Prior knowledge:
23 helices; flat; coiled coil; PDZ_sf; signal; six-stranded antiparallel β-sheet; disordered C terminus; PDZ domain-containing protein
Amino acid sequence: MARSGRGTQARLPLLLSAAVVAALSSAPNFAGPLWVRARCPLEELCHPLVTSALLPLKAASGQASRARLALRAHHGRPKRTNPKARKRRARLQKEEAKKERKEVVMKRKGQRPRKPTAVKSGARAEAKSALDLPAEASHLLHGRWSGHGGQAAKLQLKLQGYQVVNHIQREKESLSREVGMLDKKIQTIEQDNRKAKLHREKQLAEQMESWKAKVREDALEAAGRKAPDGCCEQFGGIEISWESTPATCSILPDAQKFLRLREQTGILAAIDGEDVHRKSRTEVLKLFAKFQGSIEVLPPESIFASMWLSAHQALEGESLPDLECAEGSDWLAGMRLAWTKPPVVRELSAESMRHFPGLTVGDHLLEVDGTEVPGLTRGQILELLADLKGDMRLLPKGSFRLWLIQKDARKALQSGPEEDPESQGSGGCDWCGGILIAWAAPPFVRDITPEAHAAFSEPVHPGDVLTQVDDADVRGMGRKATLELLAAMKQSITFMAASRHRFMQSVALRAPEDEESWIGGLLIHWTSPPVVKEVYPEFQGFYEQPVSQGDRLASVHGTDVEGMDRAAILGLLSIYPESFSLRFLTAHLLRMHEDAAMALERGKKRHPKFREGHNWIGGVQLLWTIPPQVLQVKKEAEAIFPDALPGNYLALVDDQNIFVGMRTRREILQNLKRCKSVAFLDGERLAGYAAIAKQVLGDLMEALTGGDFQAADE
């Protein structure tokens, strides 16, 4: 019984102490041992099986030991913590106790305790920090947490993070307030600037109105008096000289601040948008009398000012003489223009090259401000140039006739052809660039003006046939197709003389199936090769060399016809090119071929004076020296070979420039057997050629051997 009574008596103080501890632990300022708050919540301290002594309020060492023994009896031995964490907790507890003692001492002395530092320690500092944190941080602070150092550090990091976020939020709000204040200041400044600008503009407008009134007043005053001689007049700071037409102008500083012109000195071009460069003083004063504040001044070196001045001077004076033009010429903006139709450039100066880059002597003036000038007189063209506003169009040398043909062809396409009085029932005719073209098959020239006749490098005469436009053959085309080609022409047109056209027509006709045929004024006998039987004298001028009876046809358009039959030769003749070419072998050349073949077969003959031997080739006796030398010439061969004089040398065979002196007798005879031409040279010319050849050969050998003449000899 005594034992049970002692137990009851022992439990009573425990229960009372548990109640006190529970009350203190729930208080916000409770600073009891950390281990007790962590391991002994209220419900565990009040458990009926607690048999240890009560935990005293002042934490006496003996009572604390008995409280720990009681707790161990109920819970068992607590979990051992990390020694470093335990030391850290002990250090924190000591610092907390030291701080509390210091505060008590300061209160007793009447001193005001210092504010807590930024680094807070202990449960009170953490609880105080939690008051300014979100609910999640407060919950983490007041909930159960272990005494381990790692978990406390994590909680401390989270608390610091929340504090950083709060700081950033406050800074953001502060910056927003500052930005708002700056915006208000900027708006105030802009409003002040707008007011100042409006005030300045109002003042400038008032000044400009007074200046305009001054200009109008000066103009009205000047209209009542005569123009001063040799001096200028001012109109509100605009100084004008009436000595030349158009009037020159100079802007003084008083007017420049209102006009703001790039050029302050030059030709007065316009007042309030109206051209004045050709107006008189009275007309200019009338415009100034209702002045609205705008003028235009051109520098004297500009193209318009230069052309206006030069054109006015040309209108007031006479033209300069020109050898090729009766109306003469004039200097305009640095170029001398002859008054042909159209005007042509005769000379150029540095000024014109600045105004018209690419201009050359011989170019033609075609348009002025869109007006075509080829049919205008000198005075009419100068009037246009004196009032030049836009652009001048000049054609390169030789392009005017092309432009005129294109223009007339486009005009002819829109209208019908003119009647051709000389050819009833034909397709009519049309003027194209000064050439009257009759629409026959093929088209031919009915008439031509002197200007067009002089424009072509080869003269064009009435009756000539239009054969080509650019690269297109128009001899088989009709009027519309030919005019369309002429309207789009880019290069040139080609005409053929009437007689040559008739000759070409005779060549183009295929010969009938018989032994002899007339082709190009020649009666051809179809042997192999063909032989000329008869020749019309009027066609001799179309061949490169005179054609005689008995000559043989050698080539057609450069193609050798040896071995060809009649059909192949007629096929070559039907090509009908512009440059027709037939080549014949004369009877003397044929005799030379026969003599060369016989000399090859029989060998050279002995000569009583010369040991080299000789042969008669085509009526010429050749001594087989190197090169062959002419000994004698028969009378019938003298006309054929005028250079074959006794003592001369055979130098060339055919047009391949074969130097026979470099060949043997057999090689020379082989060439003479089929040659088409030969050439003879006298001894002096041949020696000169030989010296030149020797010098060239020496220079070549020196270049090849580097000056080693021994190697050259080898």
